[in-house]
Specification:
Low-confidence stretches: none
Mean pLDDT: 93
Distance between the termini: 22 Å
Largest sheet: 6 strands, mixed
Shape: globular
Order of helices and strands: EHEHEHHEEEHH
Number of domains: 1
Radius of gyration: 17 Å
CATH architecture: Alpha-Beta Complex
CATH topology: Maf protein
Oligomer: single chain
Helix content: 25-40%
Number of strands: 6
Number of helices: 6
Strand order of the largest sheet: 2-1-3-4-5-6
Strand content: 15-25%
Length: 202
């Protein structure tokens, strides 16, 4: 059984500012000192896993070893049903080295048009991995279903948020107040499982 994480430094294994901000906000009510792997001068490891879980573990394990601290990593992505689950674990790669998610979103729209598909259903997956310096680790997974919309809408969020409308809503993630989005997102669902088992409130 992994011990509770309290009154210690926790490293978020990511250089993605939006992701680090969102996870930091989720961690704000807990007794932790939070920083990112970028703050520690670490180069991001290659994500060559075949699943969200494997990629999350790669980042958490490497970061924990590098920093000799507890590390938390998130690997998440958008899966479009009509595209066989793409972009999936390659969600960030579709955006290219410049992280151009507007272009990636247009590529998704183009593929759906080429396939002549009227199925715009999609879902976000988040695998949240926690790793201790001794190698012990655990992964928690969250998912939220929804529908794609084009053109992109909203100024908040990051990544594919402007084209994703979560089930039961009429606004995209990027149109929602970030505080509200944090409560319903795939990341919050994974975080809820993680926090219940391993975190202690202030």
């Amino acid at each position: 059984m992994n011990k509770k994480i309290k009154d210690q430094q926790l490293i978020i294994a990511s250089h993605n500012k939006g992701k680090v901000k969102e996870i930091s906000d989720l961690l704000s009510e807990y007794s932790l000192r939070v920083s990112s792997s970028k703050d520690h001068g670490m180069v991001e490891p290659e994500e060559n896993g075949s699943s969200f879980e494997e990629n999350a573990l790669i980042k958490a394990l490497e970061t924990s070893r590098y920093c000799s601290l507890v590390a938390l990593s998130d690997d998440s992505g958008l899966c479009v049903n009509a595209l066989g689950g793409e972009p999936g674990i390659y969600s960030a790669r579709w955006a290219g080295p410049k992280k151009d998610f507007l272009k990636a979103s247009k590529d998704i729209e183009k593929k759906l048009t080429e396939f002549g598909s009227s199925d715009y259903s999609a879902y976000f997956i988040c695998a949240l991995a926690i790793c201790w310096p001794d190698g012990k680790n655990k992964v928690f997974e969250g998912r939220i279903n929804g529908t794609l919309t084009f053109p992109p809408r909203g100024k908040f969020g990051f990544g594919y948020d402007p084209i994703f409308i979560p089930e039961g809503h009429d606004k995209t993630f990027a149109e929602m107040d970030p505080t509200y989005k944090h409560k319903i997102s795939h990341r919050s669902k994974a975080f809820e499982l993680f926090s219940k088992e391993l975190l202690v409130e202030k």
